[in-house]
Structures are given as C-alpha cells and as structure tokens.
Specification:
Strand content: 15-25%
Largest sheet: 4 strands, mixed
Number of strands: 10
Low-confidence stretches: 233-247
Shape: elongated
Length: 310
C-alpha cells in the first residue's frame, strides 16, 4: 500500500474513533455532573444528620462499653483506666465507633495511663463496643523516701520491675504497702513523675531484686533491701547531692527479720549489672528457701549467708 493510502486509512480510522467518543462524551460528562451533584447533596445531608447518627446509641461509645482484657482489673490498678482514657477522648465531643481515628486516639489515651505498660490490640464492634487488650504494670517494690527533718516517717512510692514509678497515694493502704519488698536509702522522690522510669540506679537495681523476692518476701520474713555504694566508705552511702549517688555502682543487702537481731544478707550487684558475675536471682532465692527450710528461719542460720559470692 502506498504511503498516501496508508495515511488516508489512518485518518479514516481516527475519524471513526473521534465520532464514537464524541457520541459518548456528552453522556460521560453528564454522568460526572450527576455524580458531583449527588456527592454535594450527600455532604449537605450528612451535615444535617451526621451529628445525630454519630450520637445514636448504636454508635455512641461510653466507658462502660470499653472492655479491657485481661479482666477483671488487677487488685492494685486503681482507679479504672477506662474512665481516664474516655475523659481524654470526649474532649473533642461525643465519641462514636464511626470516628475514623478512634483506634489511634484510644491507644494513645490508654498508653498515657501509668498502669498500662502496652496496648496490644484494639477492636471496634457494632453495636457500639470496643475491646482493648493491654499489658498491666505490676508493683514489686515500695521505695521509702525519707521525709527529712525530724519526721520519723517515710513516703512510700510503688515501682514495677523496671523501676517505673506507679501511683501510690490512695491506691495502697498501709497494710498493703507492708506486704511488698521495700527499699531504703533513697533521698528524693521520682523527678519524672508516675509512669516514667525512676532515674536512680538504686531504685532500678532494687526493683530487679524485688521482682525475684516478691513471691517469697513474706514467707522468708524479709524486711528491707539496702543499696551500698561500691565506691563509698565505711558508711556505705554517698552524699545525696552527688551525681554518683543516683547513677553510681551499688551492691545490695537484704535484711531478714530476726529475734532479737535482724540478719544482714549480702545480695551482690543488681541482676542487670553488666559487671555482675553473681548467681542468678532464681539461684539466690532457692538458696534462701533451702536455708529457711533447714533452720526454721533465716535469722536462725548459724553461719553467715552471703549471696554475692560463689
């Protein structure tokens, strides 16, 4: 076929396609206009009824419709975290399961609660309900901070196994506080507040030890955990004003109740101390249990107990 004929055939084919699209084009344009009009009408309708839909009972979320898992709450978690979390959510108005960002906002609200270590999963349901699977922080230690002056009392602060400060006031009775391992020798309350890790190696190390001793604390009649600064003199303490008092290296003692005298038992370094060559916490606890079973109580053991040495 000659170039002229090829060109003529191509032009004819293009003309047919143009005619076809020209015929359908008006319908396509009309369809787009109709779709736009429907979208605009739908938006106007939603503006009028949307608020009522979101507030409808089947979509409206309340604290009682939030299911925490595990449930029931551990006895030490007070008050119910659902109420604090929901209080944050409703600052923007009514809370609905149709809210596009509900899961993210709910996770952020629960993670701000000092009793919640982690939010694992959130699932929305209809009618309005939400299941929130979390990990709770568990207190293992009470840090007794000297009140100062001539006051014979010390303020108790609960911490978990990682040294995170937990709510204490109005959450624990004096009887409940007495059931936990306690750490002495700390001069200042936590600077970062509840829900944050206490920036003091004495507290962090003491919490790690307390986590191992908590199951046997009362059975073995234990009384206190005491930090002793490795670089300190005979007193075993460092001035509170020095940085090393908070971030220095420590060995720890545990005190067992005795009659007439308490028994001091060297524990060694913190379990997480990289320089520690001690036995594991489980091995140390097993040794204490064996000695208590052999002699009736730790204070009646006739020989020195030193868990810091192999």
């Amino acid at each position: 076929m000659s170039p002229a004929k090829k060109k003529s055939a191509s032009e004819a084919k293009y003309s047919k396609l143009s005619a076809l699209f020209a015929g359908w084009g008006k319908y396509l344009l009309f369809g787009i206009l109709i779709a736009g009009a429907l979208a605009a009408a739908g938006y106007k309708i939603w503006q009028k009824v949307g608020e009522r839909v979101l507030a409808a009972e089947e979509y409206r979320l309340t604290p009682e419709k939030i299911r925490l898992s595990p449930w029931p709450l551990p006895e030490w978690v007070k008050p119910d975290p659902r109420w604090d979390a929901f209080d944050q959510l409703q600052r923007r108005g009514p809370v609905s399961i149709l809210d596009a960002d509900l899961v993210e906002r709910l996770a952020a609200a629960f993670e701000q609660n000092p009793w919640i270590a982690k939010v694992h999963r959130i699932a929305k349901e209809h009618p309005a309900a939400v299941e929130v699977e979390v990990g709770y922080r568990r207190p293992v230690l009470m840090v007794l901070v000297d009140a100062g002056g001539n006051t014979p009392y010390a303020e108790a602060y609960a911490v978990d196994a990682e040294g995170v400060s937990l709510p204490t006031k109005n959450c624990f009775t004096p009887v409940e506080i007495a059931k936990y391992p306690c750490l002495i020798g700390v001069e200042n309350p936590p600077a970062a507040g509840v829900g944050k890790r206490w920036g003091d190696s004495r507290v962090i190390g003491g919490a790690e030890i307390a986590a191992a001793l908590l199951p046997v604390w009362e059975k073995l009649r234990l009384k206190q955990i005491v930090p002793r600064a490795i670089s300190a003199g005979a007193s075993g303490t460092l001035p509170a004003s020095t940085q090393s008092a908070q971030f220095g290296e420590y060995r720890f003692e545990i005190i067992a109740r005795g009659t007439p005298n308490d028994k001091r038992i060297p524990w060694g370094r913190s379990p997480m101390d990289k320089n520690s060559q001690d036995f594991s916490p489980a091995q140390k606890v097993k040794k204490l249990e064996d000695l208590a079973a052999e002699f009736g109580s730790l204070d009646k053991c006739p020989r020195e107990i030193d868990l810091s040495r192999h």
